[in-house]
Amino acid sequence: MLKLKDVSVAYKDKKVLDKLSLTAEQGEVIGLVAPNGTGKTTLFNVIANFLKPNSGTVSFHEKHSYRSEKEEIRIHKQLATFPDQSDLFEELSGIDHLKLYANMWQKTTKHVPSIVEALHMTGYVKKKVRTYSLGMRQRLCFAMMEAADTPMMLMDEVMNGLDLSNVALISQRLNDLKKKEKLIFVASHLLENLDLYADRVLFLKDGKIIHEQHFHGDGDAFIKISLEKEQYQHIKNTYSLPDDYHFIANHLLCIPIKDMVMDSQAEWMNRLLPFNREITIGPLGTIEYYEKYFHS
Ligand SMILES: Nc1ncnc2c1ncn2[C@@H]1O[C@H](COP(=O)(O)OP(=O)(O)OP(=O)(O)O)[C@@H](O)[C@H]1O
Prior knowledge:
Layout: E1 2-11, E2 14-24, E3 29-33, H1 40-47, E4 55-60, E5 64-65, H2 69-76, E6 79-81, H3 94-106, H4 112-118, H5 134-148, E7 152-156, H6 164-179, E8 183-187, H7 194-197, E9 200-205, E10 208-214, E11 222-226, H8 229-238, E12 246-248, E13 252-256, H9 262-272, E14 279-282, H10 286-294
Parallel strand pairs: 3-8, 3-9, 6-7, 7-8
Antiparallel strand pairs: 1-2, 1-4, 4-5, 9-10, 11-13, 11-14, 12-13
Helix pairs in contact: 3-5
The structure holds adenosine-5'-triphosphate.
The site of adenosine-5'-triphosphate (ATP) has 10 residues, from helix 1.
């Protein structure tokens, strides 16, 4: 288990993390979502102790923390961070990188061939990295995490530069890793596919986790319809909207139906149908939450 308590980080007078707390368990894949420059990498750097927070604590399994070098080594045996493409050695091959990570964390390379095969890297893994495309490098970075095979993994921008079929492949591999009881954080700007592998998504804003979206279990349902501002104003002026409705990003009206009797739900449908717009019913998705919190 990983626990962050009241973690704050400021660069000079710029507060990036502000008394942030979170708890995460093995077997979870957790998405971390926020616009550029919000603090996702900073949060990962704190978890990995590449950056000391100004205040707050990071602990693992309720007993280990970065209080000594010995403890840090113990934690780092359990934790790998996604390599940056610029960290790759241009003159080494993919297989060299994989062996390096496998040996460093697992003291063996016997699991490497199956990773190469599963990630469809057989055709290029023996060539030097300098010959690789963006997508090939990214797959190598992911494969290095699998070679490290640590119980905890921090993955920043894991889907960067991948085409659709590789996004699907990596999503599947993340699901397989979850089944192996790993705890994985994935910071991503690719919101559409987070629900394929994440158990929950954390929305980071103003230095805090301002919302946690769960995919397993029922999110609160809404009637959702995209409207012009004037149409929304008309509805607002004519009817009494429930307290916790949303008008997301000035276009999506979301009316909660959790506590609404069937007759009222039908009444709302009848009011909205004349607008001749697509109406859906369901919980808010990741993109809708993103627009709700970050649309300016
Ligand atoms: N070493 C540093 N010195 C000063 N400011 C920094 C430093 N590192 C990060 N920042 C600032 O902290 C804020 C958060 O940066 P961070 O890299 O954590 O964001 P991010 O959410 O990971 O962004 P991105 O999605 O672009 O990767 C940014 O405003 C950034 O300019």
